[in-house]
Amino acid sequence: MNLPNKITISRIFLIPLFMIFMLVPFPFGDINFLGTTLPLAHLIGALIFIFAAATDWLDGYYARKLNLITNFGKFLDPLADKLLITAALIALVQLQLLPAWIAIIIISREFAVTGIRLIAAGDGEVIAASQLGKLKTVAQIVAISALLLHNWPFQAISLPFDMITIWIATILTVLSGVDYFQKNKHILLKSK
């Protein structure tokens, strides 16, 4: 187990902690900062999410720098991303901060891509994330972070940054999903 893979696994272990702060009704109260009222527990949850998401960059950096890129890491890293994103989307729907249909589109794409990865892995093939897939992940992280922070600080200037970015993330999710299926249709054709 190398350092990048340990960092990736730590991202997975942060998910339950994130969910606790987002969904358990702690009596911490609210904070009001620059025109946005935000439950303190949600701020803590958002910071955990942002930290966990940042570990995605960190594990990739160390994997490349130390030449520790492994098939296990290529499989585990996107899986950890999908688990984190899925948990956040479900929490946002539960908190009524995100329409369920957007979460369904994003989660469905993630399941479909993971399914193709599993089929490929069964054939001894590992599919690394594409550049469009990486851009999609960044857009999702930015959008989810804005939603978790209740659109802070943009609420103060009445800019719906959270909704703008979730639309961008949803569009990139669909486009990257189509691109992924087109580039890997040979895997589906082999499995028939």
TrEMBL record:
Which pathway is recorded for this entry? Answer: Lipid metabolism; Phospholipid metabolism; phosphatidylglycerol biosynthesis; phosphatidylglycerol from CDP-diacylglycerol: step 1/2
Q: Which reaction does it catalyse?
A: a CDP-1,2-diacyl-sn-glycerol + sn-glycerol 3-phosphate = a 1,2-diacyl-sn-glycero-3-phospho-(1'-sn-glycero-3'-phosphate) + CMP + H(+)
**Protein function:** This protein catalyzes the committed step to the synthesis of the acidic phospholipids.
- EC main group: transferase
Query: What organism does the UniProt record list as the source?
Result: Halalkalibacter suaedae
**Pfam families this protein is in?**
CDP-OH_P_transf (PF01066)
User: Among its keywords, does the record have Cell membrane?
Assistant: yes
Instruction: Supply one GO BP term.
Output: glycerophospholipid biosynthetic process
Q: Name one GO molecular function term.
A: CDP-diacylglycerol-glycerol-3-phosphate 3-phosphatidyltransferase activity
Q: Give the residue spans that cross the bilayer.
A: 12-28, 40-62, 83-107, 157-181
Where does it primarily localize? Answer: membrane
Compartments annotated for it: namely: Cell membrane
Q: What is this protein called?
A: CDP-diacylglycerol--glycerol-3-phosphate 3-phosphatidyltransferase
- Write out the similarity annotation: Belongs to the CDP-alcohol phosphatidyltransferase class-I family.
Q: From which domain of life does this come?
A: Bacteria
Q: Name one GO cellular component term.
A: plasma membrane
UniProt keyword list: Cell membrane, Lipid biosynthesis, Lipid metabolism, Membrane, Phospholipid biosynthesis, Phospholipid metabolism, Transferase, Transmembrane, Transmembrane helix
In what way does this protein cross or attach to the membrane? Multi-pass membrane protein
The EC number on file is 2.7.8.5
